[in-house]
Design a protein that fits this description.
The chain folds into two domains: about 120 residues, D-Maltodextrin-Binding Protein, domain 2 (3-Layer(aba) Sandwich), CATH 3.40.190; about 110 residues, D-Maltodextrin-Binding Protein, domain 2 (3-Layer(aba) Sandwich). Helix content is about 35%, strand content about 20%. The chain is built from nine helices and eleven strands. The strands form two sheets. A six-stranded mixed beta sheet has the order 2-1-3-10-4-11, with helices on both faces. A five-stranded mixed beta sheet has the order 7-6-8-5-9.
């Protein structure tokens, strides 16, 4: 009888401890680009751990696989892209991805290659831009902002090189995979580079020759979002992730770490 009572006491104690610890944890698998997204998620992971959510971060170095992985169910969510790219990806690929929250935006910058300033650009110089439609269009809009080219008034957010109506310096626009642009600066006169790839390459936004202005469309049209497959928007762990990314702890990390290259959205 004493042995039975002892076993009962042990069982009750174990159950009490399990209850106190909140029971089983939930695993949330999220895809991200290495910087800044995966770095930001590492901070959010600490916040989620307090809610018994284990955040598993899977890094990707391209813009296609993380969306395909969410569509297939391999990932619960991803955090690497802006909303305009997400919408374009769905249209081009027939995927069913939706945003569950805008977290931050990364100002595009024009970075020096073989010339040290935009004023030094000469006739026929080479300007590198991303080769995907949304980021390429965004790059062209920044070149227009700086007076280097002119686009039609109705160009929208995704103009192409063919839409350029005025190019006073006859700049040669070279379209490259976004990830290749920082590594190609030695062969380009300047390049318009995505925020995440600039960060990965050690380029600082304060050193850019030009950046998107604060009153441009960047904060809304290019807000970086957490994306899930349609139908999973109400997943409690995903909602907790969005809340964690908008927490004071994570937003402070963004402001203190990236020096204006990552701008939190309320």
């Amino acid at each position: 009888m004493k042995k039975i009572l002892s076993l009962l006491v042990i069982c009750v104690t174990i159950l009490a401890l399990a209850t106190a610890c909140g029971g089983r944890s939930t695993t949330l698998k999220v895809g991200a680009s290495p910087a800044p997204h995966a770095e930001i998620l590492e901070v959010a992971k600490e916040v989620l751990a307090e809610q018994n959510i284990d955040l598993e971060i899977v890094e990707f170095t391209d813009y296609i696989q993380p969306n395909e992985a969410v569509e297939s169910g391999e990932l619960d969510a991803n955090y690497f892209q802006h909303i305009t790219y997400l919408n374009d990806f769905n249209q081009e690929n027939g995927t069913h991805l939706v945003s569950v929250g805008a977290v931050h935006y990364e100002p595009f910058g024009i970075y020096a290659g073989r010339v040290a300033s935009l004023e030094e650009l000469q006739d026929g110089d080479v300007v590198g831009i991303p080769n995907d439609p949304t980021n390429g269009g965004r790059a062209l809009l920044l070149l227009q902002q700086e007076g280097l080219i002119t686009l039609p008034e109705d160009a929208g957010l995704t103009p192409t090189v063919l839409d350029i109506v005025d190019n006073p310096k006859n700049l040669r626009i070279e379209e490259l995979e976004a990830a290749q642009l920082p590594r190609s600066l030695d062969s380009l006169d300047v390049a318009v580079i995505n925020g995440n790839y600039a960060i990965q390459a050690g380029l600082k936004v304060e050193d850019a020759l030009a950046v998107e202005t604060a009153d441009s469309a960047a904060g809304t049209a290019y807000a970086n979002v957490v994306a899930v497959k349609e139908g999973n928007e109400d997943n409690k762990a995903v909602q907790a992730l969005v809340a964690a990314l908008k927490s004071e702890k994570v937003q402070t990390f963004m402001n203190e770490t990236y020096g204006g290259a990552v701008v939190p959205l309320a």
